[in-house]
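With this grant's support, we have settled on a layout for protein records. One resulting record is reproduced below.
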Amino acid sequence: MGHTCRGTINLATANISVEDSCNFIISNGGAQTYHLKASSEVERQRWITALELAKAKAVKMQAESDESGDEEPSSAQGDKTELQATLRTLSSKVEDLSTCNDLIGKHGSALQRSLSELECLKLPPESSEKIKQVNERATLFRITSNAMINACRDFLSLAQTHSKKWQKALQYERDQRIRLEETLEQLAKQHNNLERAFRGATVLPASSPGSAGSSKGSGSHGKGDMSDEDEENEFFDAMEDAPEFITVPADPKYHNLWFQLMEEQPVAANHESSTRELVLRKNRRNRIPDKPNYSLNLWSIMKNCIGKELSKIPMPVNFNEPISMLQRLTEDLEYYELLDRAAKCENSLEQLCYVAAFTVSSYSTTVYRTGKPFNPLLGETFELDRMDDCGYRSICEQVSHHPPAAAHHAESKRGWTLRQEIAIASKFRGKYLSIMPLGSIHCIFANSNNHYTWKKVTTTVHNIIVGKLWIDQSGEIDIVNHKTGDKCHLKFAPYSYFSRDVARKVTGVVTDPSGKAHFILSGTWDEKIEFSRIMQSTRGENGTEGKQKTVYQTLRAKELWKRHPLPDNAENMYYFSELALTLNESEDGVAPTDSRLRPDQKLMENGRWDEANTEKQRLEEKQRTARRKRESEAIKATEDGTHVDSYKALWFERREDPVTRELTHIYKGGYWEAKEKQDWSGCPDIF
């Protein structure tokens, strides 16, 4: 404190008290006092919590800098008593050892005297030698016992010297526990008060659409609304993004009609067909070998990778999970039933809700999956034929290596087609890894010719170097129906430590071509999504950042999608879902380029990681050799004035998409016909 500016209050000795819902006081018990005002009760509690934690840290630092200390805190009597009892016990044990040492010395001396007397007797030379050896050993025993007693005394002295520091550490931990308990109690009370205030302040009557905009003058607004004078005197730290809209319950008379209409939708019919499918569904494996516990120095590998493309970094399989990126892409079909239901919707806006739920569901498998999929080799494919039991089949192909890009085509006998080309852009930033999927996803329904497109959000892997790995999804998605002009805007909220919202939150609004909102979607990308029909919308007051919020009166929410529970023992099987566990299962008749046949991936799944690393290096070198050969042929053809085509995918062709006008790879057909004939003559030798 000797180098601080005038007016500074030492946090270690500061008094922090609450004056009312928004005001609090910090003082040093003397003339120096600060009266502070927060924008809301929640903001005030955040500052109180942060200051209390900082105060606890200051107290700890002060205690550590003062080794000797002056006075022991009176509140540490319980810890002090326990510590003193421990020291008394240690002292008693050392006294017992000292008594034993005295007895050893006494009896040892007597033994040596007896041995000396024996030496004086006229005994055979052999006996005299033996007695001399015994005498030397007795002397060594006494010296050793004395050394042991001295070491015990040193230990006791050291314990007494550091007892003061131990007492301070124990007291600090006790104070921290009490402070956290008090903070949690305050937060719980604050949460209840805010819930009651929110319910009392935000519900709008269905018959007064303009009430939201005119409530300021009526006096019915909550404490969050402030006068112009208050606003001029306020200042704020960085704030989290406020929601763009608010939902309130609509008139109860609409709810029964809403649920009657939803019961007539194809959900019930789909349930009947799903029950029939369960009988026909093939028995597939439900477990793989447990993941071995191999250690690896992460930093020794990652320190040379900062700022580089992830796809260009040679990684050992220790960072992988035993499936390829093609199989990970196929996992988007985990909840294909949502598209089956969407295909039966007659209303395009309701169909869009199911498509949006399907979009969100594709991220649910990533919440615990911190392993990196294998980078596919150029020309590698993966098929998933579930036409007999699930009604769909899917084919993926790695169509480009640098930049890495995969094309995917899935078709269903229930009237939908899904296709996409995804290129991965990724950067390692030292503390986290950002994965940015590039490319559009298309979903087409045969009956209505509705054509939907959307793009994926950014995936971030945190704590790459230190701490436990965890994954977050963030960004915004616009799902557009190119036939009708309907649109769904989804927002994936990034994780924030200070946010009051539930983690992994997703919200969305479904609008028609005129911009009128019809449905609200809400939930989390790792658990479930619900949707509510909007009965009425009004423009509310400006928020804290001047943004005007829309108030939607909605009917009771109905569940669209819910995540399947993970299989038993999933934590030891890379947190694979039921579908992921079956992706490497052997299938008859697949192409020789199929990911199931990739040897390094199979070795890793079986726990033979050292062999997998060796095999992975062999495959990557084989791929590099093939690329150098293609480049050499291209250079030679240029010199000869001839033309050599660049690499072309086998099952997909690159052309302009008729809807988005993007150059993309679209399935040209032929794979399933080749499988039926078992004619794989066009497949490259990549394994």
Notes: Confidence is low (pLDDT under 50) at residues 67-76, 202-242, 266-279. DSSP finds 15 helices and 23 strands in the chain. The longest strand covers residues 528-542.
